[in-house]
Design brief:
The chain has about 325 residues and is an all-beta fold. The chain has a single domain (about 1-324), classed as Porin. About 0% of the residues lie in helices and about 55% in strands. The chain has strands at about 1-15, 35-50, 55-70, 85-90, 95, 100, 105-120, 125-135, 150, 155, 170-180, 185-195, 205, 210-215, 225, 230-245, 250, 255, 260-275, 280-290, 300-315. The protein has a twelve-stranded antiparallel beta barrel. The mean pLDDT is about 90.
């Protein structure tokens, strides 16, 4: 099976004054930080069935992340804070002759194995999968903690990045159930992602625990919703809950505001094609709660809107040597 997914995320963000921060004019900062952050993600992948029970999936991501600073600027339009400015992740970030972040578009690659633990075969019933995989980092990473200080003053830095520079293991459990009545298909995935090492610059990423739920209706409810060879197959709710633990940097300790829980309810629309394949569209709004239990944490608010569209199709191809 070949699949591709494009996702757009829009963050309208604000956080309180950073204690002790000095602006670029040498004055103590007395302003909040506010702006917009847009995230474009393209995933390309392929799944190959190794036998009746095992499959393997390879997935590569490509990203662009852009910050728009809406806080105070000087007469030349430059941000007054060393923490944020209008910029994108496609470019390197320098502070003088020192590079603080390697820019680019290539994100992490993922290699996952899944095992069909239980299958009801045709008709109503239960499907259960277990899986594990490896996440391979790209080189587009930060080279220094955004919270580094020289002579008690923060250095110029970038907070966002394409990759955190560490290999990770991913474990998942998938449970789905097919029914005759609405919802005709429902279930979810419980996943856990944990780093295996630090980045070469001393960053220890967070552990992540995620729960993804969905429910689908039947195409028989939408027999009139058809345009040419495209028909509406399903309409249903989705819910993603993601817990992110504390991250840290060598010699810097825990990263402020790194522990959080995000709730993303949404609506999923599935379109089918007569010649095979399907397109899924998801529209959602996220709600994030920061767990402020560290003296380094500051108040922060986010309004999150997401849109994604994916396409997948089964390739009519048999890899002969897998059957020997």
């Amino acid at each position: 099976m070949f699949f591709t997914n494009y996702s757009y995320q829009h963050f309208d963000w604000w956080h309180d004054v950073v204690p002790g921060a000095i602006d670029i004019e040498g004055n103590l900062e007395n302003f909040d930080h506010i702006g917009l952050f847009n995230n474009h993600i393209l995933n390309l992948g392929i799944t190959i069935g190794l036998n009746d029970y095992w499959n393997i999936t390879f997935e590569q991501s490509f990203l662009e992340r852009c910050m728009k600073w809406d806080g105070p600027v000087d007469d030349s339009g430059n941000s007054l804070t060393v923490h944020h400015r209008s910029e994108c992740s496609t470019t390197d970030f320098y502070d003088g002759n020192s590079i603080k972040a390697f820019g680019g578009i290539t994100g992490d690659a993922k290699l996952n194995f899944r095992y069909l633990l239980y299958n009801q075969m045709k008709g109503p019933g239960t499907r259960v999968f277990i899986g594990m995989g490896l996440e391979i980092p790209s080189d587009n990473i930060l080279t220094e903690s955004p919270w580094t200080k020289i002579d008690e003053q923060f250095t110029r830095h970038r907070h966002f990045y394409i990759s955190d520079g560490a290999y990770k293991m991913n474990f998942e459990l998938q449970f789905f159930k097919k029914r005759i009545q609405f919802p005709v298909f429902w279930g979810g995935t419980l996943s856990f992602n944990t780093p295996l090492n630090k980045s070469e610059y001393g960053f220890s990423p967070s552990n992540r625990l995620g729960l993804s739920l969905l429910a689908m209706s039947s195409s028989r409810y939408f027999t009139k919703f058809k345009i040419g060879k495209i028909s509406l197959s399903s309409l249903g709710p989705t819910l993603n809950i993601i817990y992110t633990g504390r991250s840290s940097w060598d010699n810097q300790g825990e990263t402020p505001n790194s522990e959080s829980i995000i709730y993303i309810p949404g609506v999923n629309i599935l379109l089918g094609f007569e010649n095979g394949g399907g397109v899924g569209i998801n529209i959602a709004k996220g709600f994030e709660k920061y767990i402020n239990d560290s003296p380094l944490d500051i108040d922060e608010e986010l309004d999150i809107f997401t849109f994604s569209i994916n396409y997948r199709t089964v390739i009519d191809k048999r890899i002969e040597w897998l059957w020997y």
